[in-house]
Structure to design on (666 residues):
């Protein structure tokens, strides 16, 4: 009897093990599937797969962390808080968790938790970038009570017509309201909502619309997010943002600016603006009142951190100049977005880097002689949610967008009306204008040293320096390879040309943009800061790649195309300079593709790309025998994205590159 009982116990234990093994398999499969969604940026799908596992609280499972990250990365940071806390309780090792908890708590109005989490985060000694952001957030927390008390003489009305979908960036055009809405038929997997498009609806009254309709079939792409249009004041030109198709084959995986011209009763086929950076987020455009300047937001390299506001001059023929960062008084290490310029020249925008009640808050920047002041617009225009995309219908009224509590959807539209004039409705004091705060001063300097690739200094180098394209100075390096320190002013860019017999002539540049110390972090009235800047020179050698000597960025091509894009033309102009500076050197231009399509096809495509770039260079006066096109197809991938490997577009883009190496020294 005892033997039989023991056998039964062993059988029971065996079945329990089987049940455990097979019972865990679905969990393991679900987790694996959810992580794959996350890696592809399909955050809503990742949440749906991983949230049930996160709610179970299985020991050792990281689902809660990836659910939190998915909410944050799809712009729903408030929903991420309990999952970050759950992940933290399980010992997740991401140093940024406390920082994300702080911002999530702030978005929900829990300032005590926000302060606690920021303090813990700073104690973990994060890198300099996040340290600055956390210190600014911590300092700004103390200003929230005064911001909440700031009442503006504005009455706010939710738009009768908001839906559970996303509606934002409204502007009145004639008797209709034009806005961006998630109303396309296809779903954007990042947030689980339909793709964004441009829609218009008749206004019954200022805060009520009837059924919306598609604004234009020409400004419509089914599987992309379109939105935030800026119209010239004569109504003949529109610039809008397009991107985020969510597909791995998207040639520009982020957001770019597009332009279209009025064509009878409709619009021309949109074209990508050359000022867009193909590997950056460029969006929320706005024209100045005289149409001579385009403002937009971007996270391109060289900014102050996060999204910054830029301006671009527009000439009489409609050509766009070089984007210029608006500087550290307006831009912060946080995000600045949705600029709007009123008739009297005031710049309105949203930011989470300036002191804010919640996430993004609304601000106005105005100039008094040479001083720029930035003022918070107070409540009710601002809330603990994201408040953004202000647009004035007249000096007394307009529209904003917000995801504040009590709305109908992810983002909603609100109409506001003031009893005062525009000069005063955004100010606490309706009888006076805010006096700009005195700015602390920083004396910037640049210490240049010329070295070989191995770090050895090079004396006797002639260094020509041009500041902002003007006023050239010539220096000679001393025995330590150094020149006299160069004093810098805000926004300065210095271009260097270096020459010495026996060395490859080099060019380099240093920009102060993105390096200036935020006012909020300055403790003294006067601060001296010197930047150390090393420039590399080398001797010519067959087979040497020259990118490091001319600060060359990668040249990108659109998928399956060999055309020279505007961003590639900038880099090819540097090659023209190199060949002019070094007449003794001949180059090979080697073009590469990613692994998609057949090897034979890619070989021909890469050759076309190389020849296209060579043609561009020859048209600028370089002799044909000095540069040779060479296509390598997919034979020299620089990452693991070979045939059959599922990679994001950014990694495929790395393989679609062009390299320049020395093949002859005369």
């Amino acid at each position: 009897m005892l033997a039989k009982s023991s056998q039964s116990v062993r059988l029971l234990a065996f079945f329990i093990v089987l049940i455990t093994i097979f019972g865990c398999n679905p969990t393991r499969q679900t987790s694996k599937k959810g992580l794959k969604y996350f890696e592809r940026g399909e955050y809503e799908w990742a949440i749906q797969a991983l949230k049930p596992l996160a709610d179970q609280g299985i020991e050792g499972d990281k689902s809660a962390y990836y659910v939190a990250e998915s909410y944050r990365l799809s712009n729903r940071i408030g929903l991420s808080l309990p999952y970050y806390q759950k992940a933290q309780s399980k010992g997740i090792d991401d140093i940024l968790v406390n920082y994300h908890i702080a911002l999530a708590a702030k978005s929900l109005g829990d300032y005590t938790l926000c302060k606690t989490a920021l303090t813990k985060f700073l104690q973990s000694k994060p890198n300099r970038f996040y340290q600055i952001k956390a210190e600014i957030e911590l300092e700004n927390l103390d200003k929230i009570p005064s911001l909440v008390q700031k009442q503006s003489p504005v009455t706010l009305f939710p738009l009768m017509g908001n839906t559970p979908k996303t509606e934002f960036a409204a502007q009145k055009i004639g008797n209709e309201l034009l806005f961006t809405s998630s109303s396309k038929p296809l779903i954007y997997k990042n947030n689980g909502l339909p793709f964004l498009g441009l829609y218009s609806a008749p206004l019954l009254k200022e805060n009520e619309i009837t059924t919306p309709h598609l604004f234009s079939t020409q400004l419509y792409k089914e599987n992309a997010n379109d939105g935030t249009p800026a119209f010239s004041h004569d109504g003949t030109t529109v610039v809008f943002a397009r991107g985020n198709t969510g597909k791995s084959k998207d040639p520009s995986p982020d957001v770019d600016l597009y332009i279209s011209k009025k064509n009878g009763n409709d619009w021309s086929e949109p074209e990508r603006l050359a000022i867009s950076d193909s590997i950056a987020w460029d969006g929320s455009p706005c024209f100045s009142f005289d149409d001579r300047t385009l403002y937009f937001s971007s996270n391109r390299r060289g900014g102050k951190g996060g999204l910054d506001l830029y301006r671009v001059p527009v000439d009489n023929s409609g050509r766009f100049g070089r984007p210029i960062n608006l500087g550290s008084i307006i831009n912060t290490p946080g995000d600045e977005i949705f600029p709007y310029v009123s008739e009297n020249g005031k710049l309105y925008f949203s930011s989470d880097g300036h002191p804010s009640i919640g996430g993004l808050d609304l601000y106005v920047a105005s100039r008094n002689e040479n001083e720029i002041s930035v003022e918070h617009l107070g409540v009710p225009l601002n809330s603990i949610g994201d408040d953004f995309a202000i647009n004035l219908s007249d000096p007394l009224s307009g529209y904003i967008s917000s995801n504040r509590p009590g709305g109908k959807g992810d983002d909603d539209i609100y109409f506001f009306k003031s009893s005062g004039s525009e000069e005063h409705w955004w100010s606490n004091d309706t009888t006076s204008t805010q006096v700009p705060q005195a700015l602390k001063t920083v004396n910037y300097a640049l210490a240049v040293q010329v070295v070989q690739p191995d770090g050895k200094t090079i004396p006797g180098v002639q260094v020509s320096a041009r500041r902002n394209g003007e006023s050239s100075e010539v220096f000679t390096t001393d025995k330590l390879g150094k020149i006299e320190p160069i004093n810098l002013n805000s926004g300065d860019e210095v271009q260097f040309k270096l020459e010495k017999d026996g060395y490859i002539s080099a060019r380099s540049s240093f920009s102060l943009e993105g390096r200036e110390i935020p006012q909020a972090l300055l403790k003294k009235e006067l601060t001296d800061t010197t930047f150390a800047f090393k420039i590399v020179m080398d001797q010519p050698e067959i087979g040497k790649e020259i990118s490091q000597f001319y600060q060359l960025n990668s040249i990108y091509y659109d998928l399956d195309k060999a055309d020279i894009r505007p961003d590639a033309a900038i880099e090819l102009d540097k090659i023209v300079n190199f060949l002019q500076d070094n007449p003794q050197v001949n180059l090979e231009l080697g073009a590469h593709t990613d692994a998609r399509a057949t090897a034979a096809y890619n070989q021909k495509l890469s050759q076309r790309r190389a020849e296209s770039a060579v043609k561009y260079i020859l048209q600028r006066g370089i002799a044909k025998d000095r540069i040779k096109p060479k296509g390598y197809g997919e034979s020299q991938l620089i990452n693991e994205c070979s045939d059959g490997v599922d990679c994001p577009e950014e990694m495929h883009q790395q393989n679609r590159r062009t390299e320049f190496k020395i093949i002859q020294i005369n």
